[in-house]
Predict the structure.
Amino acid sequence: MNIQAKKLPKVSLVGAGPGDPELITLKAVKALQSADAVLYDALVNEELLDYAPASAVRLFVGKRAGRHSYRQEEINKLIVEHAYHYGHVVRLKGGDPFIFGRGQEEMDYVKSFGIDVEVIPGISSSHAVPAINNIPLTARGMSDSFWVITGTTSGGKVSNDLYYAAQSNATVIILMGMNKLKEIMGIFSRFQKDETPVAIIQNGSLPNQKMGIGTVSSITSIAREKRLGSPAIIVIGEVVKVAQKEEFMATILEQLEKKA
């Protein structure tokens, strides 16, 4: 490992937001503007790299389901190596680094070398994408709380927390769950939730966003018909009815415009 630092090594774990490049914090932009190197993930909008100086090194270390450019252990080492060699490293992660982003693992590894680590939170898709689509996670008379759960654990199975969430009246937001969609809906069906509204939002906040709305019993076929896939979030709960009203009104307006 090259330890001839040109500058004092420093690492910023930065949340890039859900995809829309305008949904990044001012503090995150300032970190990028002072970066000597940027290591960024697959779900990061590459427009954000323009905030970094032209001289800054840019390295893609993204991971998507079944396709990893680097293993997590390799990414950890790359962060440290770049900090020693270049100085200020911005580790740019989609959403928020501490919400299913493995940010804590990277922070602990970097700190073990005595390198200063700053965490800059990001806007998570778990709450931002529903909001953009008029779905409140909590609403009086509909939902008093919400759960954010991974759809697929590190062992490749559905989370056991889904069995508890399915028994509550809370809004349930599931990330990384499209490959387990049928199984997840089966869990909710076991607890008599067949008619509970469900929304799936793919590429939330981006121009190519797609959405499907149905119920626990129908959403799997709707996702297949609409060809919905990853990256997407799944929202389960009565609050989805708010978006259903919006979708209904949009359909009516579209029909009126065609008749005009």
